[in-house]
Write a structure and sequence with these properties.
Elements: H1 3-29, H2 36-43, H3 47-51, H4 57-79, H5 86-102, H6 105-116, H7 125-152, H8 161-179, H9 185-209
Helix pairs in contact: 1-2, 1-4, 4-5, 4-7, 5-7, 5-9, 7-8, 8-9
Length: about 210
């Protein structure tokens, strides 16, 4: 292996170490309480070493957020199955979406703050645009599933796909926000999953009822 290639691999390993350590810090303490110093201590690196790879705590978090959004998008996109009903595809999407944030509550908190621009993280315009674009790609999967349902006749042809997409996106986020940070820890995961399943069945039932004469 050439020296340049070896140095590049070492840089990528160091960068990954920083991101893994920072992710644990954000999960344990919450975004506001984390500092570059605490990330450096967790990664067993100097503060200066962190700044060789990232300009700020915000940039580190943005990279974590982008990686997770892209990972989620790739997963749900791979689950789409045109041989199955649109309803089943929506169920799969909702299940994966809920599991994604159950495993990282702090990510959900920051993601929602970013989406509604309430006390937002100070991302640069480029990072902000990248997150919006990645998020919209994921939301578009819901629209794709709904359109599949319209084309197959499972959902009504008069369906406003974009409005329904936004309604389902709001439904999922609302349920997760309502239950993810409240109640007993030992029952939290099942409560979130049960409420997501119940809310989705009401949503799908409403769509199908439009088919009736």
């Amino acid at each position: 292996m050439g020296s340049e290639r070896r140095r590049e691999r070492e840089r990528e390993q160091r960068r990954s170490t920083i991101l893994r350590s920072a992710r644990k810090e954000f999960f344990d303490k919450g975004f506001r309480a984390v500092t570059v110093d605490s990330i450096a201590r967790r990664a067993e690196l100097s503060k200066g070493a962190i700044y060789l790879y990232f300009k700020s705590k915000e940039e580190i978090y943005a990279q974590i957020l982008l990686r997770d959004i892209d990972k989620f998008h790739d997963r749900v996109e791979s689950l789409l199955d045109t041989a199955r009903s649109a309803a089943d595809n929506l169920r799969n999407f909702a299940e994966v979406y809920a599991a994604f944030f159950i495993s990282d509550r702090e990510l959900f908190r920051i993601f929602m703050n970013f989406m509604i621009q309430h006390n937002p993280v100070n991302f640069t315009p480029n990072i902000n645009d990248h997150i919006v674009k990645s998020t919209n790609q994921t939301i578009a999967i819901i629209e794709q599933i709904l359109q599949m349902g319209v084309e197959s006749g499972e959902f009504p042809g008069c369906l406003n796909v974009r409005v329904c997409r936004n309604a389902l996106w709001g439904l999922l986020n609302g349920i997760i926000a309502l239950h993810l940070f409240t109640g007993r820890e030992e029952t939290r995961e099942e409560r979130v999953r049960a409420q997501v399943r119940g809310g989705l069945e009401l949503f799908i039932g409403g769509l199908r009822s439009e088919q009736k004469p």
